[in-house]
Amino acid sequence: MMEDTVAVPLDAETKVAERPGDHQAELRLWLRLLTCTNMIEGEIRRRLRDTFHVTLPRFDLMAQLDKNPGGMTLGELSSRMMVSNGNVTGLVERLLAQGLLDRRPSPSDRRAQLVSLSSEGRRAFRAMARTHENWIADIFAGLSPGDIDDMMRLLGKTKASTARMVAGKDAP
Amino acid sequence: MMEDTVAVPLDAETKVAERPGDHQAELRLWLRLLTCTNMIEGEIRRRLRDTFHVTLPRFDLMAQLDKNPGGMTLGELSSRMMVSNGNVTGLVERLLAQGLLDRRPSPSDRRAQLVSLSSEGRRAFRAMARTHENWIADIFAGLSPGDIDDMMRLLGKTKASTARMVAGKDAP
DNA sequence: TCAAAATATTTTAAGCTTAAAGTATTTCGG
DNA sequence: CCGAAATACTTTAAGCTTAAAATATTTTGA
After folding, report:
1. What is the pLDDT of residue B168?
2. Do B16 and A141 touch (CB under 8 A)?
3. Minimum-distance CB partner of A142 among B41, B142, B160
4. Which residues on adjacent β-strands are paired with residue B113?
5. Residue B108: which nucleotide is closest by CA–C1'?
6. Do the Cβ atoms of B122 and B66 come closer than 8 Å?
7. Using the CB atom, is residue B71 less than 7 Å from strand C?
8. Residue A150 is inside which H or E element, if any?
9. Can you tell me which residue has its alpha carbon closest to the C1' of nucleotide D15?
């Protein structure tokens, strides 16, 4: 059997199941990626809570609506946010109760409803978004513009590599 | 495109708040980092569930115990995993109920207890870890060794930059 | 047309997660 | 020694999240 054929697997796309199970570099990369992201996400959550008394999921939902002033259905929110339908149902309920959203039936589909930011919701979101943008800039202030470009490129490559594994891959 | 003179609300106050509030590059980087990490994490969760009927937090807890055969206190688990004490209490309860953990009182401190993998837990974890390692290798298969090095370095830089913001920073 | 399939949403049950408050024990300073 | 502070852990209340089942409506195809 092919033993010492270390030669770069190229794009072979053959599962890694090659020789020995030594994938320490990839494991360490994944651990660092996860730790780093969680650290940033935790800090953003903490600040949103302490400064604006809002949770990250609610902020994210409001951000989607801010980008779509015409309103969105729950299904659109669900797919844009990459979370389940039931999740969106609950988030919208709570934001409606806070008076940050408006809701109206879809004119074309009686199953669906359209939600959008209320005027209070839009005002609140704009204020939060400005500050949030500065937090993010501060967090990445240690990276040069070149670093940011490099990281964008590498993350793009990672995303593409991951996409090959998600959903099917083997499916005909 | 956006109108180009939106009169930046220049509310300064933070260090980044230089001239204009244009931190689009950093925002896009953060969005991509988050999306990429969530995509990978979601896939790993899905596979752990479908293949081994285990959740990621339980897998992570078992991984800590596998690295510490002498047993760990809940507090050690909590700080290593970077989650709250109450969270660990619940995870340990469920893993004990599954027979995957052993628990004994700490010989030196009657407030504390030591938990470790049961023999069944160790056997189960080892099997899962081997497969998990291959999943991670597959996911990052699109990155060259050089890419992995670059990404490790950039994430290290990001982590250091973030650490400056977390906990205090302004505190005297 | 009309029944079956697809779609939009809600409900349910289970688990993860946290902050804050509470309990038990240990440590420390006087 | 002894009371105060610190530490290890648990409990509680609230919210996030998902998969799966259920409901309502629309679309589709014979």
Report:
1. 55
2. yes
3. B160
4. B105
5. C26
6. yes
7. no
8. helix A145-163
9. A55
